[in-house]
Amino acid sequence: EIVLTQSPATLSLSPGERATLSCRASQSVSSYLAWYQQKPGQAPRLLIYDASNRATGIPARFSGSGSGTDFTLTISSLEPEDFAVYYCQQRSNWPPLYTFGQGTKLEIK
Amino acid sequence: EVQLVESGGGLVQPGGSLRLSCAASGFTFSSYWMSWVRQAPGKGLEWVANIKQDGSEKYYVDSVKGRFTISRDNAKNSLYLQMNSLRAEDTAVYYCARLGTGHGMDVWGQGTTVTVSS
């Protein structure tokens, strides 16, 4: 089973700052890595798929990078609506099994 | 509008059963893999199960194998999760999600709450 470890658990930043969130896999997940944003009481929203592709309607300030076991979600300049919990998720090659990281809470400093 | 709407959640005793439904609209349901994902109170996301477009392949997280069954009815644009032998640790909000072409879950329902308690 592939385990995803996200860091930090909590990130305290101010609007306008740059956010860098990390996701490390216990073994290579190729590029089958996605990022989600979840706000309280809401369903998750897909931000990034296949490590670096922005989902439909996602602002350009969100970007993803990485391959193999180390992945990063970057928010270039934080907007007030970006403060939320972020999850990474991987899909194993075959069979197609999915796991999520434990999440990073991005809070206002 | 692309939409997923879950239903069927509720309070059930340990050892009991429940069947969740997810109604899809606004897209060609039969063209997509579908998933169930759950979130225990105050916890993170956990993938539960996947089903292929024609229902011929199904995959589960180890903790629900033998107890949960995912199924679909493409004629009714509906996804299901039959949950048997429910345990307290199955208490969660259950989301259905569409698996997009890029290996991400690109459409989510609003979730339905399952509480397992005596």
How would you portray this structure in words?
The complex is a heterodimer of chains A (109) and B (118). Chain A is mostly beta strands and 109 residues long. Chain A has strands at residues 4-7, 10-13, 19-25, 33-38, 45-49, 53-54, 62-67, 70-75, 85-91, 98-100, 104-108. In chain A, strands 2, 4, 5, 6, 9, 10 and 11 form a 7-stranded mixed sheet that branches. A 4-stranded antiparallel sheet of chain A has the order 1-3-8-7, with no helix packed on it. Chain A is globular and about 40 Å long. With 118 residues, chain B is mainly beta. In chain B, strands 2, 4, 5, 6, 9, 10 and 11 form a 7-stranded mixed sheet that branches. Chain B has a 4-stranded antiparallel sheet with strand order 1-3-8-7, with no helix packed on it. In chain B, a hairpin with a 5-residue loop joins strand 4 (34-39) and strand 5. The interface between A and B is medium-sized, with 27 and 22 residues.
Put simply, the count of helices of chain B is: 0
| Largest sheet features of chain B | 7 strands, mixed
Helix content of chain B: under 10%
Major β-sheet profile of chain A: 7 strands, mixed
The largest contact between protein chains, plus residue counts on each side, is: A-B, 27 and 22 residues
Straight-line distance between termini of chain B: 39 Å
Inertia-based shape of chain A: globular
Mean pLDDT of chain A: 96
